[in-house]
Design a protein that fits this description.
The complex is a heterodimer of chains A (453) and B (586).
Chain A (H helix, E strand, L loop, with lengths): L1 H23 L11 H31 L15 H30 L6 E8 L2 E6 L33 E3 L3 E5 L4 E7 L4 E4 L6 E4 L5 E5 L5 E7 L11 E7 L1 H10 L3 H5 L6 H15 L19 H13 L9 H10 L5 H11 L15 H15 L19 H13 L9 H10 L5 H13 L1
Parallel strand pairs in A: 1-5, 4-10
Antiparallel strand pairs in A: 1-2, 2-3, 5-8, 6-7, 6-9, 9-10
Chain B lengths: L20 H6 L4 H31 L9 H37 L7 H20 L30 H29 L12 H32 L10 E2 L2 E2 L7 H34 L7 H14 L17 H27 L8 H24 L1 H7 L3 H31 L5 H28 L16 H34 L70
Antiparallel strand pairs in B: 1-2
Helix pairs in contact in B: 2-3, 2-4, 2-14, 3-4, 3-5, 3-6, 3-7, 3-12, 4-5, 5-6, 6-7, 6-8, 7-9, 7-10, 7-12, 8-9, 9-10, 10-12, 10-13, 12-13, 13-14
Classes of the chains: A alpha+beta (453), B mainly alpha (586).
Chain lengths: 453, 586
Amino acid sequence: MAIAVLLIVLVIGTLAFHFVAPSAGWTFTELASNWSQIDTTIDITFWVTGFVFVAINLFMAYAIIKYRASKGGKATYDPENKKLEWWLTVLTSIGVAAMLTPGLFVWGDFVTVPDDAMEIEANGQQWHWTYRLPGNDGQFGDVKAELITSQNPFGMDPEDPLGRDDVLVLNPSVHLPVNVPVKVNLRSKDVLHNFTVTQFRVKMDLVPGMETYLWFTPTVTGSYEVLCEELCGIAHHTMRGEVVIDEQADFDAWLAEQPTFEETLNPILGNAQVGAAQYAVCTACHGQQGEGIKALNAPKISGQEPWYLRRQLKNYKAGRRGVHEDDIYGQQMAPMASTLIDDAAIENVIAHIQTFPDNPAPATVQGDVVRGERIYAVCSYCHGSEAQGIQAINAPRMAGMTDWYLASQLQNFRSGIRGGHPQDFYGKQMGFMGRNLQTDEQINDVIAYINSL
Amino acid sequence: MAYVSIADRDHEIEHHDPETFITKYIWSQDHKVIAIQYGGLAILIGLVGMIMSSMFRLQLGFPDTFAFINPENYYQLVTIHGMIMVIYLLTALFLGGFGNYLIPLMCGSRDMVFPFMNMLSVWVYAVSVIILVVSFFVPGGATGAGWTLYPPQAISPGTPGTDWGILLMLISLAVFIVAFTMGGLNYVTTVLQARCKGMTLMRMPLSVWAIFVATILGLLAFPALLVAAIMMMLDRTLETSFFMPAILQAGEVSNYSGGSPVLFQHLFWFFGHPEVYIVALPAFGLVSDILSTHARKNIFGYRMMVWAILAIGGLSFIVWAHHMYVSGMNPYFGFFFATTTLIIAVPTAIKVYNWVLTLWQGNIHLRAPMLFAIGFIFTFTHGGLSGLFLGNVTIDLPLSDTYFVVAHFHMVMGVSPVLVVFGAIYHWYPKMTGRMYNETMAKWHFWLTFLGTYSLYLPMHYVGFLGLPRRYFSMGDTAFMPESAVTLNTSMSISALIIAATQVLFLYNIIVSLKKGEKAGPNPWKATSLEWQTPSPPKHGNWGHSLPEVHRWAYDYSVPGQEEDYIPQTVPATDVPVGRDHGVDH
């Protein structure tokens, strides 16, 4: 008897939850694309399945109440009822068809890309996004996995004339014009990934070795988060990107700022001698040879990889780092970075830093190496088993670098002082991972292990 | 019936009753002992899987709180939890456990037709479990590739356990498949060849029908997994490129080229979808018999139920790519697979209607097994209906890879079959042990498990609608994710911990009742099928000197004009008229 009452309560409770959930935010995000038909299909399915759910369970509850065992009670012998069974089969089939038919029509729209759609390419790699646009000729150049290097991260074929004007977006944020249908070609360099923007409703896997696609028409301007939704390894949950939907003029302005493949073939080369003069400003804190000065809270920079120095200098300059109110030393660095007027200046000073001898920084942090080794197992996926850093994963070198600085940065990542800026995509990733180190003791242990490498 | 079944050749069978402890309980060839070995081991490893889920639910419900769960072991726990629950618990328990126990008893045979192979089956299964457990303790730990083990990720750096973990996982699966095949051939052959006199196919209890069809599905589906496992092992060890295109590994260009990751997914799901029914069909069968017995009423629409089992079994082989709508396969396949998938809803719905119509005009005794069976109808209806969202290819676009999927498959092939497992264990406990379980404790076990699981999985659908991706170690700051979603996650984790703790009641009950339970007698539920017409527990050889003879179907409950509300299958039609019988050749 109690079970019958419970079934009724559960049916009412489920309906109540369903209708209250949206007010608590537990429902679909607000649609920002053309795919309202998907939402309509879901609504139809809700009505059909909801009816069946309520009908079956209430009927069952009623049957239990009405026919619960009683003294002298006896069941009715009722092996089958062909008519009833056929009716139920036919009604069920009609319900199923009512859900399936609109679904298939919408799917037909999804697999048919409109002729006027613009094309972009989203590239997935453990654990970040890059994008490519076809440039003025409207066609993408050839790419090959075996051509991929740090200078040519897309594996573009320099021989292919179609690729020379391809626009390369070398960070996880891409812009698109509002109300223009866009076909997103999807490509992966390593494992399966999945391109999802929840507000657009559609998603598709990225499969290495082949190209997949999806299409949508963004209808609302704003910034939307791209999530990877196909398990792609240990940092899967940190593989975030951004799609910014702009008015056409803003989109054009953004597009003009992005380099073409042609341009990336001729990078600005740093001049170490010119850089020496620019480095004079840095000397006061980072030392003559970039060895770092603890008293001034300046880390060792000699021996750090150029791509990482470049990224951080640009982050400081652009206000992506050193702007958090609690980031006292970062705030000191930010105006210093701004003394490097342009990209050439940055390249020059980096070239100069590369000429410094790379002596390991002295160990100052004490911790349990054995415990640290266990913790470092997670870090090694990106930073490498020797903490040597892996550029392809955007993970800098840590071995032989300043350990007290590592400690303070890990604390900053954990508390959101660093990596909190929405445009600091790679810092945000480290923030995701760094939060796992919850105590200073764990931080010291893992640094003690890095020191031992 | 033209042939003389093996079970009828009574005089040909020599009965060597096992005498020593070792032959009786360790290297036993008695299907009942093997069933309990299979079931016990499956429940043991299932508890490990449950504890794993409690651990990663701690991380999900209370992110950044428990330092002992990091992204590495989180993915390992999630992966092995899924693998254990689907394969090593449910497949082994339903087929190796209940299949072994019930098929010979319900069909009226003395044992499985290949007892020695049956014994090998359980021990090979034990080996596969040991290999799985060992994989946690090798360098690099167990694989964290997710239970679907998709390459290239499963064998590329960046995923936990790509040194030894993945190899041991694949080897363990291969060994499991060997064990399953030895058992499965036995179950199929026994059903076809060793039924007692009068046990026509259309007189078999639905438990037997369902386990029989599920085993056929397994025998046809597992080879796809086996070859996939072997091919991936070759890719990993010899650098063949079955599933591996030219890719980067840890930023470096690898030696692979030309393989297809999607090929693996086709092989995996060609196994994986029938696997859903390998688990679900036995649950359908067992629950039918529990409902009928405790409602004191024939199962409604027996013939339709049998046809539905066969239809579902057949259709289950042409729906697999509904797991792959957004995998990058040719999108036009979506039309075909969405259609077949929604068609399978029809025979499935018929089964649900017939269970409910079995209760209608019954004389319903709400004992613990019946509560679990009713709970199953509720959760299975819920899980089946949410499947209509995911199966409809368009709706899969927003929902695929979110927690809606996790909620759906846990409702439909986690909670529902497990409720049947508990109901069936309580239902057949008196037969297996000769003693009754504690009814009060069993009912509490039901209330807490049933309400706990619903409070866990109902909200999970809604964070899925919101767009929370599955297999995320943590959400971090995600703009569209409101703070209230974290609250919901915390409440789900608390439910999960309560459910886990509740299972202590179950274990305590079935262990203590072995000694303290009331004596059950041969047929405490007054049931009609053959196993209840033997002593509890049945002796070696099941039937004493002569085999039973069957005269009616398994559902002669409450036949009009009869004193008793049940007529065992062994009662001759001359003594008591047959109520309704599909099994007689007219």
